[in-house]
Write a structure and sequence with these properties.
heterodimer, A: mainly beta, six-stranded mixed beta sheet, five-stranded antiparallel beta sheet, B: 114 residues, seven-stranded mixed beta sheet, four-stranded antiparallel beta sheet, globular
């Protein structure tokens, strides 16, 4: 069983729709990262969470430590949001070995 | 600041050849990482370093070597390239002050071994 599962694997939306991407995990964590990988390949860190909720522009990330679940929400989606969104876990115990999900490919159509 | 700079962007190697992927960061970060990304798979950690002179293996270290002689540079060496090493390689860094510090990625190196 994978330590981290993302859903859905692929998501197609119309411009303006509210998007939710989910990340579930089975291990104790120190922190969770949400990353964005553009079609050109570059990876950008969007959020780091250890509890609660964070907001940056149209992006909102939440985490529920008890339920071992995090969500990434995009409000008023736009075609430029089309990318692969990846969650990554920093597991407890001081290890630097981040565990990555396989990513959710989001396509937002105009 | 340039952030994390990787070179080259693309490379084609023949089986058995060697090469070094360069990674440098100008943010004075302690922690540096090398990942590989295969199609449809999550990023896998090859090697990481928590500071100059200190390196450790990740999940998939076989066939690779690293060194960290300075804070800025973390080169990845491929000896005797094999087709299984065809992948996209990413270097990343973070400050390491506290658990929750953001990752900064380079733009990647697309390597093909034929």
């Amino acid at each position: 069983k994978n330590e981290v599962e993302q859903s859905p694997q692929n998501l197609t939306a119309q411009e303006g729709e509210f998007i939710t991407i989910n990340c579930s995990y089975s291990v104790g964590i120190s922190a969770l990262h949400w990353l964005q990988q553009h079609p050109g390949g570059g990876i950008v860190s969007l959020f780091m969470l250890s509890s609660g909720k964070k907001k940056h522009g149209r992006l909102i990330a939440t985490i529920n430590i008890q339920e071992k679940h995090s969500s990434l929400h995009i409000t008023a989606s736009h075609p430029r949001d089309s990318a692969v969104y990846i969650c990554a876990l920093l597991t407890q115990g001081g290890s630097e070995k981040l565990v990555f999900g396989k990513g959710t490919k989001l396509t937002v159509n105009p | 600041n340039a952030g994390v700079t990787q070179t080259p962007k693309f490379r084609i190697l023949k089986i058995g050849q060697s090469m070094t992927l360069q990674c440098t960061q100008d943010m004075n970060h302690n922690y540096m990482y090398w990942y590989r990304q295969d199609p449809g798979m999550g990023l896998k950690l090859i090697y990481y370093s928590v500071g100059a002179g200190i390196t450790d293996k990740g999940e998939v270290p076989n066939g690779y070597n690293v060194s960290r002689s300075t804070t800025e540079d973390f080169p990845l060496r491929l000896e005797l390239a094999a087709p299984s090493q065809t992948s996209v390689y990413f270097c990343a860094s973070r400050s390491g002050t506290g658990k929750v510090s953001p990752l900064h990625f380079g733009n990647g190196t697309r390597l093909t071994v034929t």
